[in-house]
Design a protein that fits this description.
Mean pLDDT: 74
Number of strands: 0
Order of helices and strands: HHHHHHHHH
CATH superfamily: ACP-like
Helix content: 55-70%
Oligomer: single chain
CATH architecture: Orthogonal Bundle
Low-confidence stretches: 1-6, 29-61
Strand content: under 5%
Largest sheet: none
Length: 183
C-alpha cells in the first residue's frame, strides 16, 4: 500500500512525491511479474512477457544456470566492470554467497556519478548512500531492479527504507538469498 503523499502547493502532490509514487507503482508491477515466476529469473519473465509466451514453470530450488542465462546476465551487466560480471556469473552458477559483496559493490558503482566512484572504491560498508555517493531514490530503485534481475531476489519497497549505507544493502541481499544458497 502506498504511503501517504504530502501535498504541494494548491493541494496537489509535489513533484518528488509524484515521482516516488510512480516508482512505487513501477516497483509493484515488477514485483508482480517476478513473483509470477517464483524462482525463474526476472529476465526470462520479461522476455516471456514481451513475446507473449507463458512464463516458465515455477521451481522451488535454484534453477539451472544455462549458457543462455549467462549470455542474458552478461548483457544486463555490460556496463558494469568485468569483475562484477564474473562474480555475478559465479554466484548464479554456484550459489556461493561469498560473491555477493562484489556483485552489490559493482551494481552500486555502475550507478554512482564518476566523482563518487573514488569514494566508493576506497570505502568499506560504512559509506553512506545519499551523503557520500549521492544516490537518490530513483537511482536506488534502478540499483534494486538490476539486483533483482541479476541475483534472482525479490526486494519489497518497505525493505528499502532503512538503507543508509552500502553495508545495509549487502546485508539485506545476503539475508534474502541465504535460504537459496543452502541448497
Amino acid at each position: 500500500m502506498r504511503a501517504n503523499i504530502a501535498n504541494g502547493p494548491k493541494g496537489l502532490p509535489s513533484a518528488s512525491h509524484r515521482e516516488a509514487a510512480f516508482f512505487e507503482d513501477e516497483h509493484r508491477n515488477r514485483r508482480t511479474a517476478f513473483s509470477a515466476c517464483d524462482g525463474v529469473t526476472a529476465m526470462r519473465a520479461n522476455i516471456d512477457r514481451k513475446s507473449g509466451a507463458e512464463p516458465a514453470a515455477a521451481v522451488q530450488e535454484r534453477s539451472v544456470f544455462t549458457s543462455e542465462d549467462e549470455r542474458r546476465l552478461r548483457e544486463a551487466l555490460k556496463r558494469c566492470s568485468a569483475v562484477t560480471r564474473e562474480a555475478a556469473c559465479a554466484y548464479r552458477r554456484t550459489g556461493n554467497p561469498d560473491y555477493l559483496p562484489v556483485v552489490i559493490h559493482g551494481l552500486v558503482e555502475h550507478y554512482v556519478v564518476s566523482d563518487a566512484r573514488t569514494k566508493l572504491s576506497g570505502a568499506g560498508d560504512e559509506v553512506r548512500l545519499l551523503e557520500d555517493l549521492a544516490i537518490d531514490s530513483l537511482t536506488m530503485m534502478e540499483i534494486v531492479f538490476l539486483a533483482e534481475d541479476v541475483l534472482q531476489v525479490s526486494i519489497d519497497n518497505e525493505e528499502l527504507r532503512p538503507f543508509g549505507t552500502l553495508g545495509d544493502i549487502k546485508r539485506l541481499v545476503a539475508t534474502k538469498l541465504a535460504p537459496l544458497s543452502q541448497h
